[in-house]
Amino acid sequence: MVTTNSKQMTTGKAFEYALLTEFQAKLQDKTNVEVIENSSFHIAKGCFENTTKIEQSDYLLTSSFAVNFLMDIEPRLSNDIGKKDILQLEILSDDHGKSGDVRDVLAIRLLQKWEIGVSAKNNHKAVKHSRLSHLIDFGEKWLDVKVSKEYFETITPIFKNLENLRKESNATKKWNELGDYHTTVYVPILEAFIKELKNLNKENEDISSKLVSYLIGNKDFYKVVKSKNTVEIQAYNINGTLNLSFEKIEPKYKTPKVPLPTEIIDIKFKENSNTTVIVTMNNDWVLSFRIHNASSRIESSLKFDINLLKSPKTLFKNTLNISKD
To answer: What are phi and psi of 65, to 5 degrees?
Structure first.
């Protein structure tokens, strides 16, 4: 039996399984395909089977459009150098995301020392849902640089107070019982976050590129975003490993390399907001960090909903309209 944390998790995993299924269906007549049936595969399959037949056909149709397009821009999917050149298809576990690898579905050719990965998004475009708390060193986790003692001295009393309120009420006390918690909780924590990120940036090189690599993904990948009647494909070709030719076969479209930022220009609250911080970097990168409580009941941690507001013009994007006739 498959246990699921949320509807979003179920639909996301179901979409991953549909993508892998379509890769297999479209490529097995062109090359030797092997599906790696690991625990992530079985979880995703279970989530897919727990959706309705209408939802399943919707996932498969969307995946079909996406895979057809990916085959056009990745000739190595269809072309091998011989019978032993097997295309392996794999669903990665969520643990990879903790280290900055955001890919969900992998296609690998060991003989060619080649792989491409797909990040599957179902009806949402958020790049990460990272947490803040008095037990989490976001600097070390995101940027390989520890945060300061002062940062923890500022935020720990706030989170400890939330922890005490939770314990005293046997985890029943709700956020809306705190009054204006945006001002008393969110604002001081975000102010500490802004100050710390500015200091880390001042004292260390490469903070901007490390931030984007961790949040967007430190391995090149395609993001496949499913919406109601469309699917958008984005190519995060930062290291230049996507869109390679196979011998004399060229991709049908070019996905240029995407430059990482090299400096942070500004970090500040979004105008007229006490929940969102905007980080502006060079090379056209802008990220928003919206803090929120993931549950209606008080917890001793808070969640960021992190979105990419602006990206370099060289970031390849293509939207396919899905006809359901």
So the answer is: -60, -45
CA-nearest of 33, 10, 12, 25 to 67 is: 25
d(CA 199, CA 280): 15
Q: Are 33 and 85 in contact (CB under 8 A)?
A: no
Q: What is the pLDDT of residues 48-69, one digit of tens each?
A: 999 999 999 999 999 999 999 9
d(CA 15, CA 62): 9
- What is the arithmetic mean of pLDDT over 224-228? 93
Interval 151-198: pLDDT, tens: 999 999 999 999 999 999 999 999 999 999 999 999 999 999 999 999
| CB proximity list for 208: less than 8 A, separation 6 or greater | 201, 260, 261, 262, 263, 264, 281, 282, 285
Contact between 286 and 262 under an 8 Å Cβ cutoff? The reply is no
Dihedral angle sign, alpha carbons of residues 52, 229, 28, 115: negative
Find out whether 19 and 63 touch, Cβ atoms under 8 Å.
yes
Residue 258 has pLDDT above 90, yes or no: yes
Pairing of β 302-310 and β 285-292: antiparallel
| Reduced DSSP (H G I as helix, E B as strand, rest coil) percent helix, strand, coil of the chain, to 5 | 40, 25, 40
